[in-house]
Amino acid sequence: MLALPIIGVSAADLTYRSGQLSTAQQADRQLGAADVRLRASGLDTALYQSPGGDDYAPVGGFDAYTPPANEKEPDRAAALLPPGAQSLKDSRGYGKIRTRHGLLGTDLREVDAHSPLVKGLLTPNRGRLPERPGEVIATDHFLESSGLFVGSSLTPRGSQTRYTIVGTYENPSDLRRAEVLAPPGTLIAPLDKELTAAGSPGIRSQDSYLVKVGGDGFTWNMVKAANAKGVLAVSRTVLLAPPADSEVPLYQQEGKNRFGGGAPKSELAVLATVVGLAMLEICLLAGPAFAVGARRSRRQLGLVGANGGDRRHIRAIVLSGGIVLGAAAAVLGTGIGMALTAGLRPVLEDYLGERFGGFRVRPVELAAIALLAVVTGLLAAVVPAVTASRETVLASLTGRRGVRRANRVLPVIGLLACAAGAVIAVYGATSRMGATVVAGGSALAELGVVALTPTLVGLFGRLGRWLPLSPRLALRDAVRNRGRTAPAVAAVLAAVAGTVAVATYQNSQEVQNRQAYVASLPDRTGLLETSENSAHKEVPALRQALARELPLDQRADVDRLVVGKPGCDQYSSDEGCGRVEIIVPKEQRCPLFDAPNGPASFTEEQALSLRADPRCKTSEQSVQYATVVADEKLLSVLAVDDPGSAAALASGRAVSFDARETKDGKVTLRIVTDGEAADRAQQKHEDPPGQDKVFPVHQAPATVNSWGVHLVLPPAAVKSAGLATAPLGSYFTLDGAVATEQKQRMEGEMDRLGVEASLTIEEGYQGTADLSTLVLTVFAGLVTIGAAGIATGLAQADSEADLKTLAAVGAPPRVRRTLSGFQCGVIALMGVVLGSAAGILPAVGLRMVQRQEQEHLYRSLLGRGLTDEAAPYVPIAVPWETLGGLLVVVPLGAALLAALVTRSNGALARRAAG
């Protein structure tokens, strides 16, 4: 019992410390054998950076920075390479690789793996390094995810070139990265060229340079000189000997606190609270166990007193037993923790996703953990030691049980702590002081309830008059012997309180999520669409697979408008790409978003008033493309019950579902071919430049729900306007339920086609299947059974004489088993009842904190005109099913288990006189 937490804590400490890298190891994993890594920042100006290069900002701050109009940035890092220095280009990109299962998003990398500068960046495992074009090596994670192996071939999507995998490697700091590495110039650039030629977006390579400068390395002054030219530099010299904060211009401009720091005080407070409650739980569980040992040794302790020993000696003997057991648990737990960490090191590294820097043992920390076990053992033995020392020598030798008066101070302390904790928790919930205060107050209140446990156990005894014989005897025995009952009840209370708190919090969150759920489509309706425009050629095959795999009732195919290359992203500014935008008449635009400074241009009252304006209403649903090309079947699938809309589409007339976008029965579409000019115009709240296409439209009634679609264009009207289209996907309704096997087959078809597509079927709100509540309930049940079992064992040791008397007067054998079961069940029931009541407080407090935070955010957004939704609904919902299971199943299970493991026949023996 004492060793188990020590095993966990010591293993966690060793794992944490082993996972921490020294500064030199961090430098090796970032720089290899180089002195510095230079890379462009993406800012077309001078900048300031942190010593590690993780944080940076333009000189003057981002507020004063204006991004360049041209997105293509010159290779500034290459221009800074020192003449004659050894350097290595490291290029990275991202693409999709065809695998045995479909497509896999993969990091693409080009670097000379034979260069001595890459030592430490990657670790070769199997095979050999690539030597010529067409050869690559891949990470082990890529091979596991793709189903490929050393010797097989791979093909990037959009390419006709096949590459042979000749070896594997791993990134020590990211074992879960799916990455493929090729010699320089053999993968990213050729793939980019093929994709661009096919009309698809190319690959933007992110280049950096590893440089060996020698001498004193790349100093902080050299880093600042590189920053002045817009280049970021990660220097080994700076990492090993960072400059003072006063010498870092970034910290002077932005402030160091903005870029993170140590662990938040709130997290440390919560961690300390959890550790303290865990120690309390161990003491409460171990205390009765020590009491069992002391009770069994009462005769030996009585002999000590008979031979001149006083109460100090009795207390010392029992406390020494706690110290010895704590020390043994410390040695055993620490040793097992170290062995487990060393033996499971590969498993732990895979779980954490990075290699350890080494097996690091901090003797001081392990000694502190071991001391924790000794202290816990000592604290757990305090109450049994005091109880044993107060027994008279005669009572110890004869086995008699004296009558002790209840402690009158402890209930007062418990009541005060309980009241103070409740006040603190409520104050923290209502004063916006946060969850830390609520957690602290709840912990204090729980400690108060623990202190009140002996008194509460006495109150339970008044129920005995209405119970049958066996449970009445069990309850009165528990009340009469509160010294052994109260710790067990308190241990159950603590475990159940945590479970109830988490269950109440999660159930309340679930009720809130159900209330806030917004359906994306009509019930039993679905949408299949590609997630990338470059897959438009595979859409017809997707539609065929959809009709083949799912029980469709209706299917409405939809296309999208295309300007330029059909494979361009929707809002791409690349050359040859464009888009179509609906031009909303100026008088029908929402002033909140059309003003030069947006909602900030208005006072809070004006913003609130404008939010009620129909021009500023927003739709609850959103789709990838609000303007689609389809026929009248789409209206039937979307359950749009408007005969006028269906008739309009059938006659070749467009249908609008947003009255703000139409004027005089017409809608204006602007063909944008210059994406950069359109982006600049948007920043100035101006219409983008382009050619207009005007379509007559039928305006659907305002009561119609279009599920995010704003405009439906009939194919004939689009063709007559000279606009191009590309397949997008299909809306559909189902003729029956869809089994998970059918969904998996459809997903398999998408994988087989190598298409990034999404399949959405509206099935209503689906609750999150969170196992944490179930795990906590099982844990609470185990703790309840364990604590109640310990107390029952102590009760049996105390009542052995009574059981012998019952056997002597002819009581049936089942009495022993029945009494044992009821003793265990009574203790479990009392702990569960008290724990259920105590667990409600922290959950209610945390939900009240959330309610205040969300209401504050809502008022802030409402005042700035950024929302028109209703006030947030933050309920407090008690999980009655979980409480019912705890109140009924756990005590009943504990009683049955105790009855089953208790022998029904005890040896008949002479009872001691007196």
What does this structure look like?
It is a single chain. It is built from 31 helices and 23 strands. The two termini are 37 Å apart. Residues 262-270 and 907-914 have low confidence and may be disordered.
In a few lines, what is going on in this structure?
By secondary structure, the protein is α+β, with helices and mostly antiparallel strands. The chain contains 31 helices and 23 strands. Helices cover 49% and strands 15% of the residues.
Structural class: alpha+beta
Task: Report the end-to-end length measured between terminal Cα atoms.
Answer: 37 Å
Percent of residues in helices comes to: 40-55%
User: Radius of gyration over alpha carbons?
Assistant: 36 Å
The total count of helices amounts to 31
- Report the sheet with the most strands, covering strand number, pairing sense and barrel closure: 7 strands, mixed
How many strand elements? 23
